[in-house]
Amino acid sequence: MPERVLINFEVTPAEKRMIERHAKKSGQTVRGYLRGCYLMDMVIAGDGEAVRVLGAEVKAALREKLARWGILGRLGREEGT
User: Fold this and answer.
1) Confidence label for 77 from pLDDT (cuts 50, 70 and 90)
2) Rounded to an integer, what distance in angstroms lies between the CA atom of residue 34 and that of residue 19?
3) For 42-69, what is each residue's pLDDT tens digit?
4) What is the rounded distance in angstroms from the CA atom of residue 65 to the CA atom of residue 40?
5) Vertex 64, ends 60 and 66: CA angle to 5°?
6) What is the DSSP string of the chain?
7) Number of domains forming the structure of the chain
8) Distance CA 60, CA 53 (A)
9) Distance between CA 55 and CA 62 in Å, rounded?
10) Is residue 61, in this structure, part of any structural domain at all?
11) For residue 8, is it within any domain?
12) Global confidence as pTM
């Protein structure tokens, strides 16, 4: 497993409740939810380094989000897969 470091940041009580609610709704921990949000944002923005560093993890997370949004099935039908 790669080395891990801790990042701390402040949020308002309302932001904390919102983050916790969305993490729970998506079936993730707060850490996993926030990590997924910022990593997905970097990949969508086209950050090549993020794509290389995250590799399969990003691909799996992207497939999950696309499936959740109902996009993955449409893409497969459009591509004939």
Assistant:
1) low
2) 8
3) 878 888 887 776 777 767 777 787 777 7
4) 9
5) 115
6) ------------HHHHHHHHHHHHHTT--HHHHHHHHHHHHHHHTT-HHHHHHHHHHHHHHHHHHHHHTTHHHHHHHHHT-
7) 1
8) 14
9) 11
10) yes
11) no
12) 0.58
Residue 60 belongs to what domain range? 13-79
Beta carbons within 10 angstroms of residue 16's beta carbon? 12
Mean pLDDT (the chain) is: 80
- Residue 36 placed within a domain: yes
Length of the chain: 81
Q: Which two structure tokens, joined as six digits, stand for 70?
A: 């109902």
Instruction: At 22, list the tokens.
Output: 């969305």
Side chain identity at 3, as an amino acid letter? Answer: E
Residue 3 within any structural domain of the chain: no
Residue type, 41: D
Angle of helix 13-25 relative to helix 30-44, nearest 10 degrees? 90
